[in-house]
Each structure stands twice: as C-alpha cells, then as structure tokens.
C-alpha cells in the first residue's frame, strides 16, 4: 500500500475555482467551505512520511521509527501483558488492542510539537480510558522505553479489570517502569530510582499519603512534593509486590479496594490488611529503601505464548492527520481542543479505525450525546468490541437513570432499551464491573419486576463475587427483594452492605434513602 | 546518623536519697573550675579529673583493657571510632551540675554517657568503691563499643553483654570475665523470669527498658542468659551459641528471620525448655567464670599527664556542660573564647557539634572548618566536612561531573588527614574514592590506598562506582567497564544501582533500559495467557444464601 501524496499543484486550482464561482444558482448548490481546526491545519502542514502500523494481538503501534526496532518493542509489550496477568493473577477482560503512538526522534509529529500556541504536556500520556492510547513524545530512541512501560503498566490495570486508587496507580506505574527484556522473557522488579526521593525528601505520614489524589496540591504544584509522592508510592508497591509470601497481592488488592470504597486510611485499618501498623510499616519502608541488593525476577515466556506475527501496514497520511488531531484533543485540555472536536464531529472521521478515539474524545469533553450516537453507528456497522457495547449501555443508563434512587422506576420501554444494550455488552465481556453494576440496577428498577428478575440479580452477584464490585449488585438485589416482599433478605443484605468496608459512598447513599423508605413503610 | 544519647545510670548499691543542698556556686563560674584538674591520655582515651593521678591512670588502663578484650572476644574492629573523653569528679555536687537534666532533677546517678557527633563523653561520680565505679563505666563503655564497631544489637543482647563485661576483673596477666553480679542474682531469685519471647522483643518503647533501672529484671535476665550460655553448665555448643547470636545479635539480620525458628534450629529446643533451664541455673546453678590472658596493651605508666591551667580547665568544663546538657553557661564560655580569638581547635569542635545537634548544619560546618584550620586532631570533624561537601556535589549524580582542582585538593587534604588520624575508619576511604573518581586528575596513590582498604569498607558498591569512574578518567576504559559490570556482586542500593547503570549506558552508547547491573532472584517460567483468574478482587462478600425461593 502506498502513502497518499498530497497533490500540491491541485490546491490553487481548487481554491481558484472556489473563488471565481459567481453567486447565483451554482452558489446555492455548493457545500460550505471545509472547516479545519488549528490542529488539523498543523497536521496538514507535514507529510507524516513513513508511518506504519504494527499490530499484535493486544497492541497496535503507530510509528515512523524503524520497523525492526519497533517489532522488538511490540513483542516486549506482549510479554509484559502476559507477565502482568500472572503477577496479579487476573485474566484480562475482552478488549481491543491498546494503541501506542511512538514517533521517532526526527518525526514530523515531533516537529509539530514546537509550533502553535498550545502547550504540550508530559513525555508520555495515557489518553482516553475508553480507547486506551499511550502517546510517547519523549526521546525514547536515546533514553529508552521505560517511561512508556510505566504508562502501559497503568493501562494493564484497566485491561485486567482493576480499579486503582491513586497511590496504587502511581506505584504500579513505577513498578512496571523498570521492566527489562532478557533472553526469553522479561526482568521485573528492578527497583525504581524514584524510590530514592523518600531518602532525599522524607516520607509523608502514611495516613496522609493515602489520601492524596490527582487533584491534591502536593501532586499538582511544582516542586519536590510530586517526586516524594511518586517515590513513596513506588516504595509501597515495590515492597509488597516483591515480598516472598503468597498473600502479597491479596493484601494490596484489599487495601486498594478499601481506599476506593472511601475508607479512611488509618493505622488500625492498615494493620488489619498488612499485619503491621503504620509505625512498624514506616520502619520497614525506611529500611527497605536503604537496603543493599534488590533481586529482580526473570519471567520466562512459555513456548507458544508469543506465537503470533507482528503485522505491518503503511498508514495513510489522512489517517495520521486524524490520529494527530485526536491525540491533541485528548491530550490538551484547552479551548483549541474543544474547537477541534466540534470540527471533527461536524465533518466526521475518514478513518473508521479511529472511531474509538473520537468516542473517547467525546467522553473526555462530556459530549455524551455525540458519543452515544457514534457508538450506535459503530455497532450498526458491526463493531463487536466489548468496550463499545459496554459504553453504549453505560451512556444509555446515564441518560435514562442517571443515579438510582428508591423512587426510580423504569418503564417497560426504557427497560427493554437498556436491556438490549446490557445483554449485548455482557455477552461480549461478562465480568466487567461497571456493566454488571448498572445492569443490576436496570433489573431492580424495572416497573414490572418478577421472580426471574431476582434470579438474574442473584446471577450477577455470584458472577461478580471475587471478580469485581459486588456492592451495587447486592444493593440492587436487596432493593428488588424488598419490592417483591422478601423483607428478610432485603434487611439481611442491607445490613451486610452497611457494615462492609468495601461498600462505596454511592451505595451507602442509596442505602440511606432505602432505609428511610422502608421505615416509612 | 549521630544522636545525642544521654544514658543515665542507676546502680542499686548506690541509690541514695537526694540531697536537698545543691551546694553554693557562683552563677558566673562553672562548678569545679577552681580546682586542680589534670588530663591523662592513653592510646585510645583521655580522662580529665580533679581526683588523684593514680585514679585517672587506673580508669584509662581499665578501659584500654576492656576495649581490647571486647574486640578480641567478639572478633570485631572499630569501624566508626570516635574519641572518648572521661570526666571524673571528686565532688558529687559538681558532678550533679553537669549531669542533672533540670534544676529539679533529684535523681542520683552513678555516671552519664553522652554521644555527640564528634565525641563520646563519660562522666563519673565520685564513688566509695572502685569496683562499683568500674562496673558503671564498663557497662556504658560496652554500649559505646557496639556503636563504634558498627553493630546494632537488639536491646537484650546489648544490655546483657554490657552487664557481662561490666564485671570484668584485672589480675595481673589475666583478665576474668563473667564474675557474677550478686545484685542481679538476687533479683532473679526473687522474681519470676520473663518469657524469652518477651525478653527478645524488648525495644526502646518497652516499659522493661524504660524503667532505666539496672536493678530491673530485664537487665538481670539478659545478663543471666548470656552468662548461662557462656559460663554455665548448659552443655550447649559454643558454635550453636555463636550461630544464634550472629543473627539474633544484630537487628537488621534478625528482622529478616523468625527468632523462634532460629532459636530452635540452633539450640534444638524451644523457648520453654530454655526458660526452665535458665530458671534452674539462676536458682541452683553454680556460677563459674572464665579467664583470658591480659591483652598486650601499653602500661599505664606510659600515659601522658598534663596539668591543666585554670583557663584550660574552664574550657574543658564548658565543653562538658555543653555536651551533656547544652548548658548556656558552658556555651557562653566557649563563645567568649571564640570572641577572644582562641585557636584551641577543641572549642570549635564542641561548638560545631552543638550546632549540628541543633540542626544548624551550616554553622556546624563553619565551626568545624575552624577546628580543622587550627589543627584539630579529631578525624570525625574532617570526615564530616568532607561528607557535607560530597553531598553538595553529588546529590544529583552525573557521570560527567568534574570537581574543580581546588575543591578536589581541599577534600583530599581533609580525608587524608582523617585517615592518618584514624586508619581503621571506613567512611573517609569511601569519600576519597569519590574525590578521585571525579577529580580532573585522579591520584593513583590515593586509589591504591582505598583499594587496600576495600574488603573492610561498608559502602562497597558506591566505592566500586567511584573507582570505575577514576579508571575511566585515567584512560583505562575497558578496566572501568569491567569493574562497573561487577557492581551487582556488592549489593548496590537503589541510588547506586541507577547511577552505575546510567554511567555504563553512557560509556557503552546504550540506553539505560538496555543495561542491568543488579541481582536476579528467582526465575519463574511458563508465563502464558491466563484462562482463569486466581486472585480475587475484594468486594462485599456475596452470601451463599441470597434468598432463593423455597422450591419445595
């Protein structure tokens, strides 16, 4: 396949024709002039030569670097994908390949960085939770791919269906950042240099540390604080991931789940999970980061596990321009990005492969209607991706239900609209947390609730047990049981949820309302 | 790294009710300053005293003997030696001024031990019995020795060993170790022993330790256990005892193991069995002791004596007051001396130490700089100065750094002087390696000095990195690379590992991702696509009974 070369000599004529057309009959039949956003104008100023798409089962890499080099990286990405599953003990959810954009040092993409009024962000960006895309914009050719591994490590959590708290997410990124290929596999667990920040700047008090999030001033402002946070997160995750005890992952998951549910990170709670309080843990962490010798672990890849071919296709310039534009929309939270999104939505994408990115952009910019419409189109055209169907169902839920309350009810028409979407989503990936949580509410809020609906709710609860969030499904079952007259089950489940440390704030809010309704009879 | 530790000792035989009369003293003078003081110096210590000369010489000779015995018996060397000064008072009221914690502090102590960044100080109260005084000194000195050999023992082992060696006796050509302490035996016979698990777990926060009372059961039992293993008819092989203490006697090694399992593996019995044996020993056992030949150390007659002038006495007491209590009178006297352009390096050493403890690092360095320039003989000062300068240059590591010639030369002078004064230390050699590694013109003689000392150094991995750098500077690139590639054997910490990888990557023209110098642990095989998850994601547990309809 050949790269489209823009036919420069045609442009003046085209424009010329546009200019000399008189007003009158012809003018009325003409379409409005093509609008281009600032990003598209920029993208049109370069040729995007030699870009190709290298694909493996789980990754699609856009690059203009030498194929031979990138093929090796793609195989390493696949190895990391395998190793992450084994280390964390979770099979991945059904997913589309992760997109990685890997411009070369002298790439057109890089040239565009120095132009324009927009501000360019960090070296590696993880764009769009809907269509995971890792954009690598630092000089990986010379500096190595480690920062890319950090970003891919965080994306892996999403592929494995794991929600991560802030500390865990930062720590996991640092843990995977130091992945190294070795003969026949990967070396994992090399200590990250970021850990030394706690030697230089000290540890935060742990109860405070675990309350930090992406909006905390300590994280967002310039200075040593962000290094300290990253260092401390790196120490925390590295220590527990590398302990030679069978329960280490369980402990990390447990702590993560409690924090996600809004638990206060107290010393007592920490002790419950890790069998040491903050005082003892602080001493452990202090000594750990200063210890001599951190043995890493080599993961050998089983024969046949990498039995695939990395395919390579040339990428058309048009696709690259659209990719560039979408990447900037997702990466730059500025007015120009919103304008570019409007332009794209108006005009549509020429490259159907990039539709998920456009949907992702709509979601990032809260254009939910547009996103839902695009997803509908994609499904009509035969898109089978699990996440497409899941998101389509989620947006419908958002539109129709928004937030479940004890007084919410779904008409049969609403129920059937939602049911068709959720059933499609579940058929493609049965244990995605968000889908099951919302599906449970769809069933429980149905106007004409029946015994078979209760059976379905029980199936959801059992399916999610150990595989994701069960608080929403159990709350929905409690509610539905009460509606069906089984007040004992309702009360039992209600109390279970109220007392559990894994019940999140949203479900607690529902339970509070539910309690009032029941007390009123 | 350095802490000011004031250890206050209580000796059962000498607990007295506090005298309400503190004595009359002129607020403008330091107590004891009007008396005649002498300084006596032995190879490793100095004593300042207003007591008779024979007392000073005897005290030093005892300490020299204990030091030699301890190092020989435990098979260790002083890696972090600091100078030790002893102040022995003839007047209890003077002693109390320098050692009380506050004006209301009425406790009676037999001695005080203080560590400062640059020196350890022992203060002795006048006592009726020489043996009692000796016991107190020896006990504290053993703690000091543990510190300077670079060992951090758990508290029971620290106190037990201190009590064991505090009973040391000198009989001409022999030294007796293990003389039983009757006061401790009394306690053990009267009280129920602590379970061993509890004894081994005592830490700084434990009430057993914070009673701070040598009459306490904890101290007595710690002594008794070691005494039983060493001198009792325990029928335990010394190799087994050594094996246990090699791990259990060091906190960092102990933290990586289970003491109960270690105990059972070494002794072939559990805690309970040993507890009952110890109980039998305490109640019915015959207490034996051992003798070793007296170490070959200089005679006490060879120690030098200096009669101090009034001014010198005042400075030494001002030093003592500053070190033990941060006493303003002491500090004022020292500052007055500085204002009068004193060139006594010791004054500046103390003021620097005082500033360091108050976290005034810049001021501390200024004072120590002056101490060095006035000819200080305290190697710690020079090493501290060099270390602070090192941190300024190397906190953000870059292999292309070049130390300006003047800076390199100055640091060399500091470190070589420090090494000359104290050849057995380790840090000065490590720092010297870094200076040579980043100097424009590395000095091979200095590198050889470091390499000769290498087996005894603590920070081997960092030193390897520095030596590799220096080889590169000396145009020995292949050698430099091979040295650096071996750094993994020396268990580098995170900082050193990354600095080494960054350096090697630059030298080989690769990215840091392509270089790994650390260790590899287990090799796990057969990583493949998971078909099923085996880790649970925690959430609200789903009950088995979800309210299914009754099908009957």
What does this structure look like?
The complex is a heterodimer of chains A (521) and B (552). Chain A is of the alpha+beta class and 521 residues long. Chain A has a domain at 384-521: Alpha Horseshoe (Serine Threonine Protein Phosphatase 5, Tetratricopeptide repeat). Chain A has 26 helices and nine strands. Chain B has three domains: 1-179 and 292-308, no CATH class; 181-288, no CATH class; 378-518, Serine Threonine Protein Phosphatase 5, Tetratricopeptide repeat, CATH 1.25.40. Helix content of chain B is 51%, strand content 10%. Chain B has a seven-stranded mixed beta sheet, sandwiched between helices. In chain B, strand 2 (38-41) and strand 3 form a beta hairpin. In chain B, helix 16 (361-373) crosses helix 17, helix 17 (379-394) packs antiparallel against helix 18 (405-421) and helix 19 (427-438) runs antiparallel to helix 20 (444-453). Classes of the chains: A alpha+beta (521), B alpha+beta (552). At the A-B interface, helix 4, helix 13, helix 15, strand 8 and helix 23 of A face helix 23 and strand 11 of B. Strand 8 (296-301) of chain A pairs parallel with strand 11 (520-527) of chain B, so a sheet runs across the interface.
Name the descriptors.
heterodimer, A: 521 residues, alpha+beta, Serine Threonine Protein Phosphatase 5, Tetratricopeptide repeat, six-stranded mixed β-sheet, three-stranded antiparallel β-sheet, 9 strands, disordered N terminus, B: 552 residues, 3 domains, seven-stranded mixed β-sheet, 51% helix, globular
């Amino acid at each position: 396949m050949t790269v489209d070369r823009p036919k420069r000599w045609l442009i003046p004529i085209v424009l010329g024709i546009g200019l000399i057309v008189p007003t009158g009959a012809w003018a009325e039949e003409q379409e409005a002039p093509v609008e281009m956003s600032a990003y598209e104008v920029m993208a049109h100023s370069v040729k995007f030569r030699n870009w190709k798409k290298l694909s493996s089962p789980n990754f699609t890499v856009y690059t203009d670097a030498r194929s031979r080099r990138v093929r090796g990286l793609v195989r390493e990405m696949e190895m990391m994908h395998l190793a992450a599953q084994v280390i964390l003990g979770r099979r991945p959810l059904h997913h589309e390949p992760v997109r990685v954009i890997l411009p070369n040092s002298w790439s057109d993409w890089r040239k565009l960085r120095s132009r324009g009024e927009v501000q360019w962000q960090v070296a590696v960006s993880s764009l769009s939770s809907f269509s995971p895309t890792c954009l690598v914009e630092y000089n990986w050719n010379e500096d190595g791919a480690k920062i890319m591994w950090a970003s891919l490590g965080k994306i892996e959590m999403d592929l494995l269906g794991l929600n991560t708290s802030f500390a865990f997410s930062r720590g996991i990124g640092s843990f995977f950042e130091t992945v190294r290929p070795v003969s026949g596999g990967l070396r994992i667990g090399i200590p990250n240099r970021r850990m030394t920040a706690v030697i230089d700047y000290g540890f935060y008090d742990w109860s405070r540390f675990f309350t930090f999030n992406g909006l905390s001033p300590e994280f967002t402002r310039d200075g040593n604080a962000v290094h300290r946070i990253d260092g401390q997160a790196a120490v925390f995750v590295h220590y527990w991931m590398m302990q030679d005890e069978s329960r280490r992952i369980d402990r990390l998951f447990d702590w993560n789940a409690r924090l996600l549910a809004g638990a206060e990170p107290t010393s007592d709670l920490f002790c419950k999970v890790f069998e040491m309080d903050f005082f003892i843990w602080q001493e452990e962490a202090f000594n750990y980061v200063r210890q001599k010798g951190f043995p890493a672990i080599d993961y050998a890849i089983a024969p046949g596990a990498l039995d695939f071919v990395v395919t390579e296709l040339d990428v058309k310039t048009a696709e690259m321009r659209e990719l560039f534009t979408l990447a900037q929309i997702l990466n730059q939270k500025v007015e120009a990005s919103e304008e570019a999104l409007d332009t794209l939505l108006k005009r549509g994408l020429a490259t159907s492969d990039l539709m998920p990115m456009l949907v992702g952009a709509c979601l990032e910019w809260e254009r939910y209607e547009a996103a839902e419409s695009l997803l509908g189109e994609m499904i009509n055209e035969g898109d089978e991706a699990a996440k497409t169907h899941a998101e389509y169902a989620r947006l419908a839920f958002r539109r129709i239900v928004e937030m479940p309350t004890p007084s919410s009810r779904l008409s049969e028409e609403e129920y059937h609209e939602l049911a068709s979407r959720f059933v499609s989503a579940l058929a493609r990936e049965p244990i995605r947390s968000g889908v099951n949580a919302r599906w449970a509410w769809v069933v429980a809020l149905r106007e004409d609730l029946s015994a078979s609906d209760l059976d379905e709710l029980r199936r959801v609860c059992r399916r999610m047990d150990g595989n994701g969030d069960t608080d929403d499904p159990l709350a929905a079952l409690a509610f539905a049981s009460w509606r069906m007259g089984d007040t004992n089950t309702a009360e039992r489940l209600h109390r279970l949820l109220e007392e559990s440390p894994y019940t999140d704030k949203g479900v607690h809010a529902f339970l509070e309302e539910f309690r009032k309704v029941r007390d009123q009879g | 790294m350095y802490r000011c530790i004031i250890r206050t000792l209580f000796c059962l035989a000498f607990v007295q009710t506090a005298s309400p009369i503190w004595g009359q003293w002129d607020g403008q003078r330091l107590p004891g300053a009007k008396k005649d003081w002498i300084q006596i110096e032995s190879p490793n210590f100095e004593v300042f005293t207003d007591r008779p000369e024979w007392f000073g010489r005897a005290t030093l000779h005892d300490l020299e003997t204990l030091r030699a015995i301890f190092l020989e018996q435990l098979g260790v060397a002083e890696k972090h030696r600091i100078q030790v000064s002893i102040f022995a008072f003839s007047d209890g009221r003077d002693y109390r001024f320098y050692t009380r914690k506050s004006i209301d502090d009425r406790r009676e102590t037999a001695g005080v031990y203080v560590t400062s960044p640059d020196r350890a100080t022992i203060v002795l109260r006048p006592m009726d019995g020489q043996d009692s005084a000796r016991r107190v000194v020896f006990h504290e000195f053993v703690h000091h020795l543990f510190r300077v050999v670079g060992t951090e023992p758990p508290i029971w082992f620290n106190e037990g060993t201190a009590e064991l060696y505090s009973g040391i006796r000198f009989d001409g050509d022999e030294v007796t170790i293990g003389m039983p302490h009757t006061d401790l035996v009394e306690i053990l016979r009267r009280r129920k022993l602590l379970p061993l698990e509890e004894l081994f777990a005592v830490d700084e926060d434990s009430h057993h330790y914070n009673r701070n009372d040598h009459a306490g059961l904890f101290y007595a039992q710690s002594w008794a256990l070691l005494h039983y293993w060493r001198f009792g008819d325990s029928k335990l092989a010394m190799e087994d005892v050594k094996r246990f203490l090699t791990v259990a006697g060091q906190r960092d090694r102990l933290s990586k193991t289970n003491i109960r399992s270690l105990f059972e593996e070494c002794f072939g019995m559990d805690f309970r069995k040993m507890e009952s044996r110890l109980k039998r020993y305490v109640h019915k056992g015959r207490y034996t002791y051992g003798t070793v030949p007296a170490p070959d150390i200089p005679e006490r007659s060879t120690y030098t004596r200096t009669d101090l002038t009034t001014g010198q006495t005042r400075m030494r007491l001002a030093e003592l007051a500053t070190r033990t209590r941060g006493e303003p009178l002491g500090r004022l006297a020292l500052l007055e001396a500085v204002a009068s352009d004193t060139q006594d390096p010791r004054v500046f050493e103390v003021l620097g130490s005082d500033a360091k403890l108050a976290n005034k690092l810049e001021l501390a360095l200024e004072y120590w700089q002056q101490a060095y320039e006035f000819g200080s003989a305290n190697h710690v000062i020079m090493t501290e100065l060099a270390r602070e300068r090192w941190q300024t240059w190397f906190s953000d590591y870059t292999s292309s750094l070049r130390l300006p010639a003047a800076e390199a030369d100055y640091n060399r002078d500091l470190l070589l002087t420090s090494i000359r004064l104290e050849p057995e230390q380790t840090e000065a050699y490590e720092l010297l390696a870094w200076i040579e590694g980043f100097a424009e013109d590395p000095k091979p003689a200095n590198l050889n000095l470091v390499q000769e000392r290498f087996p005894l150094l603590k920070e081997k991995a960092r030193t390897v990195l520095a030596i590799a750098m220096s080889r590169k500077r000396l145009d020995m690139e292949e050698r430099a690379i091979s040295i650096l590639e071996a750094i993994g054997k020396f268990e580098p910490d995170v900082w050193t590992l990354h600095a080494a990888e960054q350096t090697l990557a630059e030298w080989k023209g690769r990215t840091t991702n392509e270089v790994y110098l650390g260790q590899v642990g287990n090799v796990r095989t057969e990583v493949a696509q998971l078909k099923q998850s085996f880790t649970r994601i925690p959430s609200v547990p789903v009950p088995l009974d979800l309210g299914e309809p009754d099908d009957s």
